[in-house]
Structures are given as C-alpha cells and as structure tokens.
Write a structure and sequence with these properties.
The structure holds 2 protein chains of 2 kinds. By secondary structure, chain A is mainly α. Chain A has one domain: ABC transporter involved in vitamin B12 uptake, BtuC. In chain A, about 70% of the residues lie in helices and about 5% in strands. Chain A contains 15 helices and 4 strands. By secondary structure, chain B is α/β, with parallel strands linked by helices. Chain B folds into 3 domains: about 150 residues, Rossmann fold (3-Layer(aba) Sandwich), CATH 3.40.50; about 80 residues, no CATH class; about 260 residues, 3-Layer(aba) Sandwich (Rossmann fold). In chain B, about 35% of the residues lie in helices and about 25% in strands. Chain B is built from 21 helices and 24 strands. Chain B has a 6-stranded mixed beta sheet with strand order 6-9-10-3-11-12, with helices on both faces. In chain B, a hairpin with a 2-residue loop joins strand 16 and strand 17. The longest helix of chain B is centred in the last third of the chain and has 18 residues. Chain B starts with a strand and ends with a helix. The chains are: A mainly alpha, B alpha/beta. Chains A and B meet through helix 10 and helix 11 of A and helix 13, helix 14, helix 15 and strand 20 of B.
Amino acid sequence: MKDFINRFGFPRLIIIIFLILLMAVAIYLDIPLSGLITDILVRFGMNAILVLAMVPGIQAGIGLNFNIPLGIICGLIGALISVEFKLQGFVGLFASILIAIPLAIITGFFYGKMLNRVKGQEMTVGNYVGYSVVSFMCIFWLLAPFRSPELIWAYGGSGLRVTVSLESSIRHVLNNFLAFNIGNITVPTGLILFFALFALIIWLYSRSHKGLSMIVAGSNEKFALSNGIDVDKERIKGTVISTVLAAIGIIVYSQAFGFLQLYNAPLYSAMPAAAAILIGGASIKRASIAHVIIGTLLFQSLLVIALPVINVIAEGSMSEVIRIIVSNGIILYALTREGGKAA
Amino acid sequence: MYLLQMKNISKNYGENRVLNNVSLSIEEGEIHGLVGENGAGKSTLMNILFGMPVIHSTGGYEGEMLVNNEPYKPASPEDAMLAGIGMVHQEFMLIPGFTITENIKLNRERTTPSFLSKIFGKRLEKLDMESMSKDAKAALKKLDMDIDEYLPVAGLPVGHMQFIEIAREIDKSKMKLLILDEPTAVLTESEASKFLEVIRKLAELGISVLFISHRLDEIKEVTDRITILRDGEVVKTVETKDIGINEIARLMVGRQIDFSQKEKNSRHISDEYILEIKNLRVNMPGEEVKGIDLNVRRGEILGIGGLAGQGKLGIANGIMGLYESSGKIVKDGKELPLNNPREILKSSIAFLSEDRRGVGLLLDDTIEFNIAFSSLEIHEEFLRKIGPFKLIDRKGIREHANKMVKDLDIRCTSPRQRVRSLSGGNQQKVCIARALTLEPDLLLVSEPTRGIDIGAKKLVLDTLVKLNREYGVTIVITSSELGELRQVADRIAIIYDGKVAGILPPDASDEHFGLLMAGKDIEKVVD
C-alpha cells in the first residue's frame, strides 16, 4: 500500500479523493453531471497545450517556464492579425498559428540566450521577464496600428480592446470539428485531436536523438558536456519549443473561450499551467506527456466541479479563490520538495 | 612538558579503519611536522583534534587526548578554541567584504554598551572599533605585518590573507597550539620563506605549531620533530635533525606492493605513440596543468600519479575539453581540436570522470540508458528509423545492457534499475560499460576506485587490466593511490606543480616516488 502511494504520489491521491467527494456532493445537490463532464472535456482541451508548453522547458533544464506569457503574446498577435484581415474558420486559425510561430521562435531564441546567462535562477527571472514583457505589451496594444472595428475600442479612437470577441472569426472552430454527443455530453473532438497531435510530436521528439540530447542536457549539465553536447544550445532549443507551444496554446484556448484577452491577462496563464503539470506528477527536473494529461485533467476537473458546488454551498464566488489556493499551493509544494523530486 | 598528547587514537568510517592507534605529542613551543600521502589520515586526525562535527556524526573515535595533562574531549570546534587550539585551514575562511580588523575580531568583537543593548541584551552592544583595531594591529605586529588594518580583505594578495588568518588565531588570548594545514600551498616562494620565519617567531613566543605540508624541504627546514603517517598509522616520529628528505619520502610512500603480475615485464609494448601531448595547459580550478609533455604508447597502461592539487586530474579533463585548455594533442598522427568534447569522443577516446556521480552518470536514469547514451549521442547507434523519424531503440539498448551487465558482472535487479540506487563499485562498472560501448582505443580513467570499498576496488582494476590485455585498449589511469597505479600500470608519470616531475617504472623504489611527489629533482637528490 505504502509502495503504491509512493509511486502514485501523495498529492495526486489527495486531489483525487477530494474530486470524488466533490462529485458526490454535486450529485447530491442535483447539479447536472453531463454538463460538468462536457465542461471538463472542453477545459482540458483548451488548456492542455499550454500545460504541454511546460514540458520542453523542464526537459531542457530551465525548470518551469514561468515566462509562457512571452509565447502567449506571440499567439495573441497572430490571432489579432488574422482577425484584422477578416479571416474566418480554419483559415483564420491556421493563419494565426502560422503568424505566431515565427514570432515565438524569435522571442524564444533571445529569451533562451538570456536564460543561459542566469543559470540556476531561470524560474525567478522568467517570472519577472513575464511581468516586464506583459507591461511593455500594454503600451503596444494601445499603439498598435490595427484598424478593424472589432479590435479597437468601440468609441472610435485607437488602441485595442481588453477583450476581443472571436464570434465572427475563429470561435469554436476546433470545438465543433467532428464534435458529437453521447447523451447530454458533448465531446469536442477537434480540440482534443489537436492537442493529441502536439502531444504526439513532443513525445516523438523526446524519443529521438535530438530530443534525448536535450533531455540529457537538462538532467545533468556536466554529464551532457562530457558527452559532447552543447548544453547552451539545447537549453535554447527547449525554450524555443516551449514558447512556440505557448503561442499555439493560447490560440487554441482563445478559440474555445471565444475571446482574446489582452493587456494583463497573459500574466495569469503561467501559474495554472505550472500547477497542472506538477499535479500530474512532474518535477522541475522531469516531465512527460502522461504528466500533462493527468495533471490537466485533475486540475481542470477540480475547478469545474468545485465551482458550482461551492457556489451552492457558500454564497458568493469562491471558485477563483479555490483556483488560486490550489495552483499556488501545489507549486509551492513542488518547489519545496528536496532537489525538485516529483511532487 | 607536553602541551598536547594524543594517545592511541583510532577512527573508523563505516567499515574502513582510517586511523589505527595513532599517538602524537607536542611540546610547548615546539614546531611539529606532520607528513603523509593523501588519505594517510592527516585530516581525520586534525578533525578529531578540532572536534569537528563530522567525527561525531560518524561514530566518534577511540583513544584519549590530554591538553596540559588534563583530559580533553572536544565535542565541537568551540571546545578546541577554549582549550587554546586554533587552526588555519587550507581554504581561507575570511569574509571578503569585511576589513582586516573585522575579520580578525570576528565573533570576538570588543563592544561598548548602548541603549539598545540595555534593553535587548549584550548581543546588541556597539562595536568598539578603536580597541578592536588596536588588537588587530598588535596581532599583525607579532607577524611583522605592516598593513592598514582598515583595508577590506577582498583584493589583498593571497599571502596577506594567510597572515590575517594566523593573526586571527594568535589574537585569541589563550592560543597555545596553532594547526597549519598546508599553509604554503598557495604562497609564492618568497611569501613562503617569510611565512616560515613567522612560524619560528611564534614558537619563540611560546606557541606550539603543528605544521602539515607536502613540501618536505619546508618541513625539514622549520620543524623540530616530524611524525610520518601512512595508511592511518604512525610510521615514525623522529627529531628533524636525524632524518633526511630522502628518508622521509621513503617512509611516506613505502608500502607492501604485490607484484604478482610479473608477466608485465616481459610484455612487449611498441614504441609507437597513440597519443602525444605537447605543452598542454589546463585551467581546471584546484588542479591546474601548467604545460605538460607526455607521450602514451599504443597498448600500454600509463599511470598518472601525484598529490592532490598538483594537476594530475586536469590532464584527462583537459584532453576531453571539459576545462579550458591550450597546447597540442596528437592522436594517431592527427592533431585533435581542443575544448571540443564531441570531436575527442569521435576520435575513439573515452573518459571516466573522477566525479562519478556528478559527471559520469545520470543518477535518475536507468542503467541501460546510462550505458547506451554516449554511443547514441556520438555514433548515433541504438536508433531505429521509423518513417521520417529516428527514434530510440529500446530493445537494442536492453539487449546491449544485458550483455554488459553479464560481462562486467554489474550487480543489479534489472537493467531498468536507477543508477542512483547502485553501490559505488557497480556505478563505476556502469561508467566503464558506457565507455566500452563507445568502443574506444584510448581510455582515460580518473580516480577509478575513489569511494569504492576494497573488494570492489580490485574488481574495477581487474576489469581495466582485462580491457587492456584482451581488447588492446590503451589506458591512461589517473589516481591518488600510488599503490594502485603500481599494481596495474606499465609506467607511472608523477605530476608536481602542473608539470611532469618524472616517469618511473612501477617497481622503482619508494624513495624515488616519494621524492618526485614532493617535487624534488630526482637526479639531483639520488646518489
């Protein structure tokens, strides 16, 4: 039994027990379970790629990439440009992604270079770079030369809105692709397939020669060096891949959410993603696709179920509070583990 | 009258007996030298004397100690200080940003009451800088140091730092015995000679000095008596005037060596060089190589010996390109690029690092992955082509690992076991397996038996000899244990001060080895 708990991980066990409890309460309170499950599937699909973005960073040895806001901004720019040109449906989606990727590669490259100068403090530095970049972009959003009335403030003038509706462009293109119903549960097939595609790519990469070099560079720098691996280059690779995934991730997230959130919104994306992968069993040294899937499922289920249950039991909106406590608590727990062992 | 008597001190680290019935006594005002190879037990003895926590956490020691004929049982370094024993460590224990005065008076500051201290107690009293600097000046004066005591320590020459450390010790009013652990190792020649004068002066002031050094001529010059340690036992305590440097060297190194492998004398080794090292300089902190010329013949086992810190470890690390190096390395007539580990590995050179757990292994990965990775990375082996992708071939790796586990007798539950949970000897075998998988024709091995118990040591050495004899791998083995080198090597190069002091056959006399390790020119001293 003890062995099982050790292997499965204590935090995961607690969260699963908590989830089952919540589920029981939800049934007792007559909250429709089918709606909850649909929600869980959607939220899993929309967040999974952002969580996946943590994997290459951890593998390459830069730890949790708290600077995914950088990639997210690239993704947002891609989406904004595609809206500006009135692209719709899959054309709009792929155009956004195609614009975002080169931007993410460039910014990821320079960010990676910077991280090589602050080895050992990547997570702290990442956090603050995230803050600075997001603040800087607040100026950019105001000054950017977008013209489409959907993007700029309704009262004319200039500057982008805080939230941009994607109603007329790419809203739900993935969610609705091949979607089908089982009873009252809607399965967002396209969304989940899209994540599966990227998960497969990362999985293949981490079993390839190049991927293995990157993982080894991340797990033991000196060992990697003595095997002729250019550690700095591998770290940059990991950072770039992570940034690109974040850019794609936010586009997928936004199309499911229906809105692009600008200004300070990208800041709040790193913590839940980091928390999710840690809940899944990753450590700051080791992460796999399985960690992403388990972690995202658990984390999002917790939010989805806790929200209506707690809103019924306790008056007022408690869900945000719970979310913050869970995500930050898990990050804290993982970071205090000796030597970054798996949480 | 004896100031300090240590009687029949013994100490075990686990199964290892590192000190065995060591007795040592120091008279008042005496300068006593302590010499021995690395691992002879000098540091352990000093740790016991100084009451270091490491002694108590590993089960304490046996035997008794007397200071001024009173029993002395230090439970912590503080007890040692109270008994009047001070130590100057090899590494400086100074705070760079503080002034000389502050460093000398650290934790023994002179203070005057202030209004905060009246409320919150003595710890908040104000520093009395004036009387502190007076003390500092007096201590420095005793050492003939004329330096502004308000200067910060950062940026001072190392020689000065050494003196400040000593000033701090002698400022303690009850100071009776000063332990100096290789104090001249970092000093230039002129600084060192001034340093020796100061030691004499301290002895005149009535302070006893226990002087630990590898520089035998300094020991000979400054001490009154000498104790020689070897393998945790006292070989001899002798009046300095009755013994010569040659004799000290011989006693220090001398060891029963089993020359069972007599066949090696009849072994024919060609004169062809597999590796030529020309003027190699390696900037490896603590093991700097300062221009080495060394040739390795095809098919031999070349030993590289010498004391710690003289640069022997830097050679293999420099060749591999793990530390910045300059010079020229020629393998099979082809010059190799420096500072480029990948090219070196591609030229059929493999390396077993002295830092097995740090550099040599991925501790949290499986045995099989550790064995296969180098070859996967360098030769692109163990990869399977699937469509456009080249993926890792788990099955091939498993098969290869199983074979290696059997060949090298790696004791594990399965090749999927994590390397961290293996014993030191088995970890070393995993490293050897990894190097073998690269199919090298030249293998650089650093400290292969460090941290391995005695039984496993022999196995590791036997494995290396087997590689050499059966597969014709040329081996360069670097080790602090001379005995081990003399067992397996065909020739032994002794490194001193970053240079080759000389190359000896394994059956050369103890005296010759001892002298080379102490940096003496062998032709000048012998006959």
